[in-house]
Design goal:
InterPro entries: His_Pase_superF_clade-1, His_PPase_superfam, SixA. The chain is mainly alpha-helical and 99 residues long. It is built from three helices and two strands. The chain has one domain. Helix 1 runs parallel beside helix 2. The longest helix is centred in the first third of the chain and has 16 residues.
Length: 99
């Protein structure tokens, strides 16, 4: 099992955009990363994200390139203030590759 942890791409500041959409630079950077991963043959069954706008947009760009068969899924425990330790057991129990 492999776990690929990807932080969201550059987002607009909250003072400019309360929803914090990705900046144009952020979109370009994550598209380059997605192309790199695709060229290396990376394959994951699905991509998980926190549901925050910047994380969802990052996941959508990755999914366009990687085409995970199970698509995207919003899940708990991936927010900026969430305790990362909760993933230890979840990862131990998982047999699939996760991003």
């Amino acid at each position: 099992m492999r776990f690929y942890l990807v932080q969201h791409a550059e987002a607009k500041p909250e003072t400019e955009d309360p929803e914090r959409h990705l900046t144009e630079r952020g979109r370009e950077e994550i598209q380059k990363i997605a192309a790199f991963l695709t060229a290396r043959g990376l394959s994951v069954p699905r991509i998980l994200h926190s549901g925050r706008t910047r994380a969802r947009e990052t996941a959508e760009i990755l999914a366009q390139a990687l085409r995970p068969p199970q698509g995207l899924a919003e899940t708990d425990g991936l927010g900026p203030m969430d305790e990362p330790g909760q993933w230890v057991q979840r990862l131990r129990e998982s047999q699939e590759e996760l991003m």
